[in-house]
Amino acid sequence: MSKDRDTADRTIGDATRVVAAGRRPEWTQGVVNPPVWRASTHLYGSVAELRAAGGRDTHHRLFYGRRGAPTQWSLADALTELEPGAEATFLYPSGVAAIAAALLSVLSPGDELLLVDSAYDPTRSMADGLLKRFGITTRFYDPLIGAGIADMIGERTRAIFMESPGSLTFEMQDVPAITAAAKARGVTAILDNTWATPLHFRALEHGVDLSILACTKYVVGHSDVMLGSVTAAPSHWRKLRETSFQLGQVASPDDAWLGARGLRTMAVRLAQHQSSALQIARWLETRPEVDRVLHPALETCRGHDLFARDFRGSSGLFSFVLSGGDEAARAALIDGLVHFGIGYSWGGFESLAIPVDPQRYRTATAPSFAGPLVRLQIGLEDPADLIADLEEGLKRFAAARG
Ligand SMILES: *Cc1c(COP(=O)(O)O)cnc(C)c1O
After folding, report:
1. Which of 208, 262, 363, 366 is 20 to 30 A from residue 222's alpha carbon, by CA?
2. Residue 198, ligand 1, Cβ within 6 A
3. 192 included as an active-site residue
4. What does the buried/exposed string (b/e) look like for 53-78 if buried means 16 or more CB atoms within 10 Å of the residue's CB?
5. Looking at the structure, do residues 26 and 118 belong to the same domain, yes or no?
6. Is 95 found in the same domain as 47?
């Protein structure tokens, strides 16, 4: 918790923030990056000290390894500092674990969840599986619903889960309109903010109560660590902490340390991801083999007005729709790429390309496309090399499509 610095820091720039955030002298102990504190047991000087440490409201005091140590607290605190209006952040061993903790901190048997139809597939699976098994029902809503969400909120609705833009199809949601409707009915607003990060979308300032990051992506930035976080508004952090402790969730100190290391360069990496991705997206728009580019920072993309109104920047992940062609023609494009790996996840320094088929997951909406979709994660390579690679790929696609 760092409310004092939170207010003081509002005028400084993003790169300055990520460099300074969370580096309290008592945690860094004279070095620059907070070191790895590996611990399960913490020793006390007396029974009285042990009793004092165990109080439910202790925060940032050594108690037992499951509640973390300075390595985790420092990263969590840094993420809180990046999100104006936040009270506290908790870390998890993956982004999906963070999603589970956020949902379970507000939902009980008999409750209803409203989940955006464009959500990350494992979020859907959690709703259709774990939550359903525990008597929580889910209704899916159209990502373009905006203020119309008010009509879906019922007696049992306890939470709305947004993801904006959706990480396959990139529809923007009207987050302020949705959170306003949620607030009016006492419903918790949860957002998966992995795409924008708090640097490019300030979730809590737009009414979100619990903001989730798959830190695996841009915070870590090097495709070698799984990590998640939930940053909570003052009204929600106690419930979140209680649920997290009860679930026994703890991020390892080594992973938190690598997350903190990644965070220091997140602003400069994001700036480069953003500019390279936009350059490539604009180039793809000019290509006859491409029907449509799904990237909300493009003026031609539906939802750009919301993006321009609410977001401070974009990132390196977007999709494009091919003009016709089938699975085999799409595979011909992807298989021969030299600078793009074929693999899940994103946010690392290296480029990736995967086939995506959002139609398979949707239940509330049925988007239709002129051809198959490809999702690109644009890494930190020279964009000219990536464009040349994609140009060859589009030629292979056109030849295979016939
Ligand atoms: C990857 C991802 C997650 C899950 O993160 P993991 O660390 O892989 O569990 C959640 N939301 C979005 C949008 C993601 O892309």
Report:
1. 208
2. no
3. yes
4. eeeeeeebebbebebbbbbbbbbbbb
5. yes
6. yes
Same domain, 273 and 259: no
User: Tokens in use for 248?
Assistant: 């026994």
Closest CA to 118 of 372, 389, 365, 371: 365
Q: What is the CA radius of gyration of the chain?
A: 22
From 243, 263, 283, the end of a domain falls on 263
225 and 88 in a common domain: yes
How many domains does the structure of the chain reveal?
Answer: 2
Which atom of ligand 1 has the smallest separation from the CA of 226? 7
137 and 56 inside one domain: yes
pLDDT at 70 over 60: yes
64 catalytically annotated: no
Domain identity same for 56 and 143:
yes
Q: Is the CB of 188 under 6 A from ligand 1?
A: no
Does one domain contain both 272 and 370?
yes
Ligand 1 contacts CB of residue 120 (under 6 A): yes
pLDDT digits (tens, 9 = 90+) for 356-388: 999 888 999 998 999 999 999 999 999 999 999
pLDDT recorded at residue 53: 79
Angle at 310 between CA 320 and CA 101, to 5 degrees: 80
pLDDT tens for residues 211-264? Answer: 999 999 999 999 999 999 999 999 999 999 999 999 999 999 999 999 999 999
CA distances from 368 to 55, 165, 234 (A): 55, 18, 41
Best mutation site among 92, 120, 218, 375 for ligand 1 pocket (most ligand atoms within 8 Å of CB): 120
Instruction: Choose the final residue of a domain: 263, 286, 310.
Output: 263
Q: What is the mean pLDDT of residues 67-75?
A: 94
Atom of ligand 1 nearest to the CA of 167: 13
Ligand 1 contact, 213 CB (< 6 A)? no
- What is the reported pTM? 0.96
pLDDT tens per residue, range 201-214: 999 999 999 999 99
Residue 282: give the domain boundaries: 266-401
